[in-house]
Specification:
Layout: E1 3-11, E2 19-28, E3 31-37, E4 47-50, E5 55-58, E6 60-65, H1 85-99, H2 102-118, E7 121-126, H3 137-148, E8 151-154, H4 164-180, E9 187-189, E10 191-195, H5 201-210, E11 219-223, H6 227-235, H7 241-247, E12 256-259, H8 265-273, E13 277-280, H9 282-288, H10 295-300, E14 304-305, H11 314-327, H12 338-354, E15 369-372, H13 385-391, E16 398-401, E17 404-408, E18 411-412, H14 417-437
Parallel strand pairs: 1-4, 1-5, 6-7, 7-8, 8-9, 10-11, 11-12, 12-13, 13-14
Antiparallel strand pairs: 1-2, 2-3, 5-15, 15-16, 16-17, 17-18
Helix pairs in contact: 1-14, 2-3, 2-14, 11-12
The chain binds zinc ion.
The site of zinc ion has 6 residues, from loops.
Length: 439
């Protein structure tokens, strides 16, 4: 049944027109067919859905996250406070990923994706790791994302740190997903690599050869997140991480590079000329104290925005990112436009990788839409919507993906939220005990 959504305040960040006070959106077969100013004349077979003045935004995209860490919230900190980035990985995240089993992975994916949906995020680029339950983990994620109507990019973090057998299993899990979802419109497989510093030259060569059969597929990797990654490449005889990956033909326009903090001016040129996709994760960078990304580089390379597992809400990520940066800036220095990362750069990156336009309110694009029952204390206009996005909006009341409501008037549709959260609470308690038992 074709639908016309009416009586909407339509916000289209970084598009023209960017704001309509009273508009409508026509949906045909789950896609936006047209939009305009009220009134609208309905075709005989169309159903009107009156949104009664709600504000609508394009569904948001998380360009880098780790759903496997969804059950980490509230777990005990390590017995000794980490003093550097590698200690954080070893004492927290690499113990968590080793402790995951099928049940805790499922609970993490369900609870993590539900939080995304609740925050108005309709496309997620995930970077997964569960070395003791690898085979089938990406299919499990794809299945749960499909049930929730979320478009998902899959990648399993290949690394040497758990030995040669687990390296091979992880590579095969990626290749299996790359084959299985080659033509799937809502699942985008990538070849996941943890980071340069946990991969030998031989392993990078193995990955490069594996990609020969998948010329369209890119990698998804942590890039120069901490200065130690840069130093590691130096010790191996390369000028930088980017230069090392370039040697193995692993810098390209279909790949996703998370963080990209400690890169040289030559690296920035290489990434720019390759049309590579970078993702900024400001709250994670602040939390791990890995440094602050140069603002000029950030704008030059058109970084997208991710949360690196820190939170589900991308508007929170944008606001907090802007505040973290402001705290490092001097008077008179302009900040980076974080909403541009979220509403312009993320859709550009996701559209390129999925192969069709995503997260825009324009004809032909899937109807991934987020609605807010927003009553502001100041007038919202085409001049000041950024402030309302950063400081006014809370959780959306309705979330639609491919033209179907997945959340309607505050309640998930066809998703047993109570059961998912109850199971996640029970499973997380068990997971934390397993983590504590690990060395
Ligand atoms: Zn990450």
């Amino acid at each position: 049944m074709n639908k016309v959504l009416t009586h909407l305040r339509i916000l289209r960040p970084y598009s023209e027109p960017d704001y309509m006070e009273s508009g409508w959106i026509r949906l045909i077969d789950g896609r936006i067919a047209a939009f305009g100013e009220m009134p609208v004349v309905l075709e005989p077979e169309e159903t009107e859905i009156n949104l009664a003045g709600k504000l609508v935004l394009p569904g948001m995209i998380n360009a880098h996250t780790h759903l496997y860490s969804a059950l980490a919230m509230g777990m005990s900190p390590p017995s000794r406070t980490p003093t550097n980035f590698n200690q954080i990985l070893e004492s927290v995240w690499w113990r968590l990923d080793r402790a995951l089993d099928e049940d805790s992975i499922r609970a993490s994916f369900q609870a993590g994706l539900l939080a995304c949906l609740r925050a108005g995020v309709t496309t997620v680029f995930d970077h997964h790791s569960s070395p003791n339950w690898i085979k089938g983990s990406l299919k499990l994620l794809a299945d749960i994302a499909r049930e929730m109507g979320i478009k998902i990019s899959l990648a399993y973090e290949v690394t040497d740190r758990n030995g040669a057998d687990i390296f091979q299993d992880a590579l095969e899990e990626n290749l299996d997903a790359m084959e299985r979802y080659r033509d799937d419109p809502v699942v985008h497989p990538m070849l996941g690599l943890h980071a340069s510093f946990t991969l030998s030259d031989e392993s990078l060569e193995t990955v490069r050869r594996a990609l020969d059969d998948f010329p369209e597929t890119g990698i998804h990797i942590h890039l120069a997140e901490d200065i130690t990654d840069h130093h590691d490449s130096g010790e191996r005889g390369y000028q930088s991480v980017v230069q090392r990956l370039s040697e193995y033909d692993l810098i390209h326009s279909n790949s996703l590079y998370a963080h990209g903090i400690h890169i040289t001016p030559d690296d920035a040129d290489t990434l720019f000329n390759s049309n590579a996709n970078l993702v900024h994760n400001p709250t994670s960078n602040a939390n791990n104290r890995v440094g602050i990304l140069n603002g000029v580089t950030l704008e030059l390379l058109g970084y997208g925005l991710g949360t690196d597992g820190m939170q589900a809400n991308l508007l929170d990520e944008a606001r907090t990112g802007a505040l973290i940066r402001s705290s490092k800036m001097t008077q008179g220095q302009p900040n980076v436009d974080y909403l541009k990362l979220l509403f312009e750069n993320n859709p550009r990156i996701a559209s390129k990788l999925f192969g069709y336009h995503l997260s825009r309110i324009e004809p032909g694009v899937p109807a991934d839409l987020v609605f807010y029952d927003y009553h502001a204390r100041t007038e919202l206009s085409e001049m000041n919507w950024p402030a309302h996005l950063l400081y006014g909006l809370g959780q959306p009341d309705d979330v639609m993906t491919d033209g179907a409501f997945m959340i309607r008037n505050g309640d998930p549709v066809g998703i047993d939220e109570h059961e998912i959260l109850k199971n996640a609470r029970i499973t997380s308690g068990r997971l934390w005990k397993t983590i504590e038992a690990l060395k």
